[in-house]
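Technical note accompanying the year-one report. For the benefit of new consortium partners, we illustrate the data format agreed upon in the data management plan: each record pairs a sequence with a structure-token string. No post-processing was applied to the example shown here.
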Amino acid sequence: MKHTLLALALVALATGAMAQEKAKIYFIRSTGYNWGGAYKAFIDEKLVCNIQNKRYSIHEVEPGEHRVSVQFSGKQHKGNDEPIVITVEAGKKYYVEMAIKRKFATSDLYCQEVTESTAKNLMKECKEDETCF
């Protein structure tokens, strides 16, 4: 009986630890272009970071589906961007590059998910921004 209770307690502890584990989303701004200051990074329409040139930031999120987006300005999500949807798993890392698509008279800011090897290459010359604001 003692062994059964001990086994159940260990399973409960392990299950609880796994349920509390989060995923990490990295925002990477590897460009050297200023474009008026920091880019605004959003997760689920909530501002999580103002990212300057050649910086990256790390954000813990609950496992599940998240909408990730970026915009040039504003503390509120404007909704006129193209968010990407990322389904994250506990304990894993996800990398989002902030990029600019240049047009004749304007530029569009967007984000795209990249592989770990691409992200590590982009982050070589970047510094982690731990404060974000």
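Partners are asked to follow this layout when depositing records. The helical segments are 2-20, 116-123.
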